[in-house]
Specification:
Blueprint lengths: L51 H34 L2
Length: 87
Protein backbone atom coordinates (compact mmCIF):
# COMPACT_ATOMS: atom_id res chain seq x y z
CA UNK A 1 0.00 0.00 0.00
CA UNK A 2 1.46 3.35 -1.02
CA UNK A 3 0.58 6.78 0.31
CA UNK A 4 1.25 9.96 -1.58
CA UNK A 5 1.62 13.46 -0.22
CA UNK A 6 -0.30 16.00 -2.20
CA UNK A 7 1.47 19.20 -3.07
CA UNK A 8 4.84 17.90 -4.17
CA UNK A 9 7.69 15.92 -2.76
CA UNK A 10 9.24 16.13 0.69
CA UNK A 11 12.11 18.28 -0.63
CA UNK A 12 9.60 20.99 -1.47
CA UNK A 13 8.35 21.28 2.14
CA UNK A 14 9.86 24.21 4.03
CA UNK A 15 9.76 24.88 7.73
CA UNK A 16 10.51 28.57 7.57
CA UNK A 17 10.77 31.75 5.58
CA UNK A 18 12.43 31.49 2.15
CA UNK A 19 14.38 34.73 2.73
CA UNK A 20 15.92 34.17 6.15
CA UNK A 21 15.19 30.51 6.88
CA UNK A 22 13.59 31.12 10.26
CA UNK A 23 10.12 29.69 10.98
CA UNK A 24 7.14 31.65 12.27
CA UNK A 25 6.34 33.97 9.40
CA UNK A 26 5.74 34.00 5.68
CA UNK A 27 8.31 35.30 3.23
CA UNK A 28 6.48 38.56 2.53
CA UNK A 29 6.29 39.22 6.30
CA UNK A 30 10.05 38.79 6.79
CA UNK A 31 11.68 41.49 8.91
CA UNK A 32 14.91 39.58 9.59
CA UNK A 33 18.04 41.03 8.09
CA UNK A 34 20.31 38.08 8.92
CA UNK A 35 20.47 35.13 6.55
CA UNK A 36 20.70 31.57 7.82
CA UNK A 37 22.15 30.33 4.54
CA UNK A 38 25.64 31.83 4.05
CA UNK A 39 25.38 31.34 0.26
CA UNK A 40 22.59 33.92 0.03
CA UNK A 41 22.92 37.70 0.35
CA UNK A 42 23.87 38.66 3.87
CA UNK A 43 22.54 41.97 5.06
CA UNK A 44 23.44 42.76 8.63
CA UNK A 45 21.51 45.42 10.49
CA UNK A 46 23.53 46.13 13.63
CA UNK A 47 22.03 49.51 14.44
CA UNK A 48 19.70 48.00 17.03
CA UNK A 49 22.26 45.81 18.77
CA UNK A 50 23.83 46.89 22.01
CA UNK A 51 27.48 47.70 22.36
CA UNK A 52 29.85 46.90 25.20
CA UNK A 53 29.61 50.49 26.44
CA UNK A 54 25.86 50.30 26.92
CA UNK A 55 26.22 46.95 28.72
CA UNK A 56 28.85 48.45 30.99
CA UNK A 57 26.64 51.46 31.69
CA UNK A 58 23.73 49.14 32.48
CA UNK A 59 25.89 47.14 34.90
CA UNK A 60 27.00 50.34 36.62
CA UNK A 61 23.39 51.50 36.89
CA UNK A 62 22.31 48.17 38.39
CA UNK A 63 25.22 48.25 40.84
CA UNK A 64 24.26 51.78 41.93
CA UNK A 65 20.66 50.66 42.43
CA UNK A 66 21.85 47.68 44.51
CA UNK A 67 24.00 49.95 46.69
CA UNK A 68 21.11 52.39 47.15
CA UNK A 69 18.79 49.55 48.13
CA UNK A 70 21.36 48.22 50.62
CA UNK A 71 21.69 51.67 52.21
CA UNK A 72 17.91 52.02 52.41
CA UNK A 73 17.56 48.61 54.07
CA UNK A 74 20.34 49.42 56.52
CA UNK A 75 18.66 52.72 57.36
CA UNK A 76 15.32 50.98 57.84
CA UNK A 77 16.95 48.36 60.07
CA UNK A 78 18.60 51.08 62.17
CA UNK A 79 15.30 52.95 62.45
CA UNK A 80 13.42 49.83 63.60
CA UNK A 81 16.20 48.90 66.01
CA UNK A 82 16.32 52.38 67.56
CA UNK A 83 12.53 52.57 67.74
CA UNK A 84 12.31 49.19 69.47
CA UNK A 85 15.18 49.47 71.95
CA UNK A 86 15.49 53.19 72.58
CA UNK A 87 12.22 54.75 72.24
Amino acid sequence: MEFYLSGGNKDNIRAGCKKCGYPGHLTFECRNFLRVDPQRDIVLDVSSTSSEDSEEEELQRLQAMREKKSKMLLGLFCFVFLKKYIG
